[in-house]
Amino acid sequence: MAYDLHTHSALSDGTQTVDELVGEIAGTGLTGFALTDHDTCVGWTRAAELADVYGLDFVPGMEVSCATSGLSVHLLSYYHDPENTDLFAEINLARDSRITRAQKMVDLIAVDYPVTWDLVQEHVGEEATVGRPHIADALVTAGCVSTRSEAFATILTPASPYYVSHYAVDPVKAVKLVRAAGGVPVMAHPFARSRGRVASVELLEQMIDAGLCGLEINHRDNAEDDRAVLRVLAQKHDLIVTGASDYHGAGKPNRLGENTTTGQMVERIRERAGL
Ligand code: AMP
Ligand code: FE
Ligand code: FE
Ligand code: ZN
């Protein structure tokens, strides 16, 4: 029983439609998967239908953008009510801010590179949550870089003069909102240092006090020594431990099922969701 509890479709910054993504998952031998697009649940219905067709166990999820004092944090939420007013008021603020932020970044980048907002929009799927990966795709199309990863390592890195941040809910508040919406909050790639500054153990403990249920320890962006620290924390607070690929299709090197979650941990997530 192996589950991949963190995947993205073109409804955020993955490169595949939900149909293509679930079709590919069906060929991996995984027991089940979660669709966790950034700040949206619009793919749940189709993903659940396809999971039925392929005999996969579907776990509905979302990756909530959070921020505190300039630090970007990602919170996975499983099984929340996709129509919860308080949670989606915050999600919609972040989604709107992501658009303004991307426009500002494109304005700055356009001074030095041949990209336009129209070109970026050609890479954003219908209803999709906008992110830097879409700007990266425009930069690839314009011939400025050869891959998304190269764009992230250069023009789009937080250290670049073109970087602009966006509004996102405080992570401690997000944990409370997810719980109030019936969801199970799990901290995504807690120590993903390659992306920039990461959360302190103090912040993680504040999130745990607020109701955080789990840690995504087995993720390629957590180094081995960091995983040891996270395992101690998980043990201390009896947290759910997950592993996942954070698959984005062709947009990132991460491969489906490269890290997985046990059926037993999925059962614990369902228990916390009251299922
Ligand atoms: P944003 O949320 O708009 O700031 O963009 C960050 C998102 O870009 C993350 O959620 C990742 O999914 C994606 N990302 C980060 N690094 C890379 C990379 N090297 N290649 C492709 N996508 C990346
Ligand atoms: Fe992403
Ligand atoms: Fe993430
Ligand atoms: Zn992700």
Order of helices and strands: EHEHEEHHHHHEHEHEEH
| Count of β-strands | 8
> How much helical structure, as a percent, in the residues?
40-55%
The main sheet orders its strands as 7-6-5-4-3-2-1-8
Principal-axis shape equals globular
Reported CATH architecture of the largest domain: Alpha-Beta Barrel
What binds here, in terms of ligands, is:
adenosine monophosphate, fe (iii) ion, zinc ion
Number of helices: 10
- What is the mean predicted local confidence, pLDDT? 98
Chain-wise SSE layout:
Elements lengths: L1 E6 L10 H9 L5 E4 L8 H11 L2 E12 L2 E8 L6 H26 L6 H5 L10 H10 L6 H6 L17 H10 L3 E4 L13 H10 L3 E5 L5 H14 L2 E4 L17 E2 H10 L3
Parallel strand pairs: 1-2, 2-3, 5-6, 6-7
Antiparallel strand pairs: 1-8, 3-4, 4-5
Bound molecules: adenosine monophosphate, fe (iii) ion (FE) (2 copies) and zinc ion.
Keywords:
275 residues; alpha/beta; TIM Barrel; DNA polymerase, domain 1; 2 domains; binds adenosine monophosphate; binds fe (iii) ion; binds zinc ion
In short:
This protein is an alpha/beta fold and 275 residues long. 40% of the residues lie in helices and 16% in strands.
Task: Please provide a written account of the structure.
The protein folds into 2 domains: 2-91 and 169-272, TIM Barrel (Alpha-Beta Barrel); 96-153, DNA polymerase, domain 1, CATH 1.10.150. It has 10 helices and 8 strands. It has helices spanning 18-26, 44-54, 85-110, 117-121, 132-141, 148-153, 171-180, 201-210, 224-237, 263-272, and strands at residues 2-7, 32-35, 57-68, 71-78, 184-187, 214-218, 240-243, 261-262. Strands 7-6-5-4-3-2-1-8 form an 8-stranded mixed sheet. Strand 6 (214-218), helix 9 and strand 7 (240-243) form a beta-alpha-beta unit. Helix 1 (18-26) packs parallel to helix 2 and helix 7 (171-180) runs parallel beside helix 8. The mean pLDDT is 98. Bound molecules: adenosine monophosphate, fe (iii) ion (2 copies) and zinc ion. The site of adenosine monophosphate has 10 residues, from helix 5 and helix 6.
